[in-house]
Amino acid sequence: MDGLTRLLASSTFRLALVYMALFVVSALALLLFIYWSTTASMRQQTDETIAAEIRGLAERYDSDGLPGLTAQIADRLQRQQPGDSSLYLLADRRLQPIVGNLSGWPKQPADESGWLHFRLGDDAGGKVHMARARLLKVRGRFNLLVGRNMSEFEQTRRRIVNTLVWGGLIMLGFALLGGVMMNRSVTGKIDTINRASKEIMAGNLTRRIPSRHSGDEFDQLSDNLNHMLDQIELLMDGVRRVSDNIAHDLRTPLARLRHRLEAAARQSAGNEQQRMDLIDRAIQEADGLLKTFNALLRIARIESDTLQASFVEVDLGQLLRDVADLYEPVAEEKNQTLAISGDRSVFIRGDRDLLFQALANLFDNAIKFSPKSSSIRASLSRTELVLCDSGPGIKRTERDRVFHRFYRADASRSTAGSGLGLSLVKAVATLHKVNIELLDNSPGLCVVLKWREQKAGGASR
């Protein structure tokens, strides 16, 4: 009983029932059309045969008179084979039979077109059949009736009706069977997804929905759900990693901040200048912590993808020159040269402040990690922006991880920083649908920004 209740409650089975009903109705409509066309064709053939016989008998009467007509009818009756359904009756004005194979004139009157429909008894089996005949007035003196026993027609009609009934029942049965089988197949696939989902909700985040590799819609759904679960697992790993990195990277500055505040508190009144120095250092540590948290909040805001509504046309060429002008004094302190080449004006829709911050982070890293008296080159085209330095570069195994929050490559561990610069660059690039690629510069690193879509425009000026 529970299985039947579950079957009836299944949307798949109900959908199968709707499809079954449409299929059965359409099939029955087709069979009914076949029935109608078949019976109509048989009736038309019967009427044409009767009409042809009447014309022949009328021509015989016109040529040979009553004796010829009587002889013609008698000859046809004599040549009839068992099972022949032809009916003939020639009667006088008072409808008294003269010749024919009917015992008497039918009691039913003819319709306006001269057709009669009457019952015909079967002496052999005692059965009653319907007959169809045509009435012809012969010169007003005689009545000629030519027709057909419609028993074969009735048998064919009943056979077609029985075929319709049994065919409909068989189609209904197969449709029900198909609905149950389809429901079982679909329910089985859905149950597989539900079981996997329950395990995932129970905490098994490595569980994935199995795929049958058939390429159907359920496989596509499973692949999409698995891809979504991979992304969720990756995001959760990222959250855990960020939490660990925050705890690890901020523990030292917080400890220094606490130590300096304690030292400032222990200073006597005569060491006011030393106390102020300690307080200033504590403030600097607090500013550094606030800067780190502000960077995290800024990255989270960028990744929320809510800033695209404020995008405007930004000239990357002018933006690149502004960033280079800002960092040129910093580069001159290390006797470094900044070289910019390529198109002067390339336009892209975006947020100018975010793009400026991303380019500033890239220039800051290039200057920071490049040795003294080296060169830093930036090239802009309609499809990409390339920034190359002469620093230690980044190992291939670390090129994906450097975009993670707080991750610092081996070459950067001895330098100041929070490990959020490239994370912000990645977030800005993703928001603007820009691909980032890290390449060797031998020595150094080249950062390549490529537009995913042809959003860049403009021409050299």
Textual characterization of the structure:
By secondary structure, the protein is α+β, with helices and mostly antiparallel strands. It folds into 3 domains: 2-157, 2-Layer Sandwich (Beta-Lactamase), CATH 3.30.450; 217-303, Helix Hairpins; 308-451, 2-Layer Sandwich (Heat Shock Protein 90), CATH 3.30.565. It has helices at residues 2-9, 11-78, 151-201, 217-266, 272-303, 316-333, 352-369, 421-431; strands at residues 86-91, 97-100, 115-121, 128-138, 142-149, 312-315, 337-342, 347-350, 375-380, 384-388, 434-440, 445-451. The strands form 3 sheets. The chain has a 5-stranded antiparallel beta sheet. A 5-stranded mixed beta sheet has the order 7-9-10-12-11, covered by helices on one side. A two-stranded antiparallel ribbon has the order 6-8. A hairpin with a 3-residue loop joins strand 9 (375-380) and strand 10 (384-388). The longest helix is centred in the first third of the chain and has 68 residues, at 11-78. It is rod-shaped and about 155 Å long. Mean pLDDT is 79; it is low at 453-461.
